[in-house]
Design goal:
The chain is an alpha/beta fold. It contains seven helices and ten strands. The protein has a single domain (35-61, 78-236), classed as P-loop containing nucleotide triphosphate hydrolases (Rossmann fold, 3-Layer(aba) Sandwich). It has helices spanning 49-57, 79-89, 105-115, 121-131, 147-159, 177-194, 205-209, and strands at 5-16, 23-34, 38-42, 64-69, 72-73, 90-93, 165-169, 197-201, 213-218, 221-222. The structure holds adenosine-5'-triphosphate (ATP). Belongs to the ABC transporter superfamily.
C-alpha cells in the first residue's frame, strides 16, 4: 500500500450464506485506490459490487486476504473496533436512504456524532443539512419528505463526521433523473471540497464516467481497467 492509498485490498475472498446456499462472491480482489479519487464500480447484477463496497466499509469481513482502509488494517479489529472505525472514517449512502423513520432529519444526521460523543452534534447536523439545501426540513420526519429530500438527509448524515471515505451504493437508483442528478452533484462537490475518496456503485455508465476511475467487477473479480477520460468503450458498459 502506498502512502496515499485510501483503500488497499489484496487477494480478498468472501463467501456469504449458509450450507447449500453459501456463495463464493469475491474471488481474489486486488485493488488500490488513491486518496482523494472518485471510483465508479460497475458490472452485471450479482457480480459482487455491493459486497465489495461492504468489505471496504468494514461492514463485511473478508474470509481471506488483506483489507486496509484509511491506513487501518481491518482484519484484527473487534466488532466494536470496526464500528468505531466506520464511525470515524467512512460515510455510507444507500439506494434506499436507510433513515430512521421515527427520527427527524436533524436527529438522523446527528446520530453518528452523538454516537461519537460529540457535544455539538445538533448544531453540526443542522449546518450539514443547510449545506445540502434542507434548512427548511430540519424537523420533518422521513415520511414527510420526498425521495430526493430523504437522500439529501442521507448525504448529510454520511458527511457530518467528515469521513475520509465516502461509499455510495446506487445512490440515485430510487430517484428520478433530475433529482438523481442533484444528489450526484452534491456528492461530487463534497468529494472535491473535502478531498474525500469516493467509491460509487452504479448501473449508470454516464455516472461512472464522471469518476476518475471506472472499475468493472465480473463474477467476483476485477476486470482490467477502462480509462474513463479516453475510452469510448465506456459508452458500451452493460452496467
Ligand atoms: N448474505 C448473502 N448470502 C448469500 N448470498 C449472497 C448474500 N449477499 C449477496 N449474495 C449473493 O452474492 C452475489 C453478489 O451480490 P451483490 O449484491 O454483491 O451483487 P451486485 O453486483 O451488487 O448486484 P446488483 O447490481 O444486482 O446490486 C449475488 O449472487 C447475491 O445473490
Amino acid at each position: 500500500m502506498t502512502a496515499l492509498s485510501a483503500i488497499a485490498l489484496q487477494n480478498v475472498h468472501l463467501s456469504l450464506g449458509e450450507g447449500a446456499g453459501r456463495v463464493h462472491i469475491l474471488k481474489g480482489i486486488d485493488l488500490e485506490i488513491a486518496q482523494g479519487t472518485a471510483v465508479g464500480l460497475i458490472g452485471p447484477s450479482g457480480s459482487g459490487k455491493s459486497t465489495l463496497l461492504m468489505v471496504m466499509a468494514g461492514l463485511e469481513r473478508a474470509d481471506k486476504g488483506s483489507v486496509r482502509v484509511a491506513g487501518t488494517d481491518l482484519s484484527p479489529l473487534s466488532e466494536d473496533g470496526l464500528a468505531r472505525f466506520r464511525g470515524q472514517n467512512v460515510g455510507i449512502i444507500f439506494q434506499s436512504f436507510h433513515l430512521v423513520p421515527n427520527m427527524t432529519a436533524l436527529e438522523n444526521v446527528a446520530v453518528p456524532l452523538e454516537l461519537a460523543g460529540d457535544r455539538d452534534a445538533f448544531s453540526k447536523a443542522a449546518r450539514e443539512l443547510e449545506a445540502v439545501g434542507l434548512a427548511h426540513r430540519l424537523h420533518h420526519y422521513p415520511a414527510q419528505m420526498s425521495g430526493g429530500e430523504q437522500q439529501r438527509v442521507a448525504v448529510a448524515r454520511a458527511l457530518v463526521v467528515e469521513p475520509k471515505i465516502l461509499i455510495a451504493d446506487e445512490p440515485t437508483g430510487n430517484l428520478d433523473e433530475s433529482t438523481g442528478n442533484q444528489i450526484v452533484e452534491l456528492m461530487f462537490a463534497a468529494q472535491k471540497a473535502r478531498n474525500m475518496t469516493l467509491v460509487l456503485v452504479t448501473h449508470d455508465p454516464a455516472l461512472a464516467r464522471r469518476c476518475d476511475r471506472m472499475i468493472r467487477v465480473r463474477s467476483g473479480e476485477i476486470e482490467p481497467e477502462v480509462h474513463t477520460a479516453t475510452s469510448k468503450a465506456a459508452e458500451e458498459v452493460s452496467a
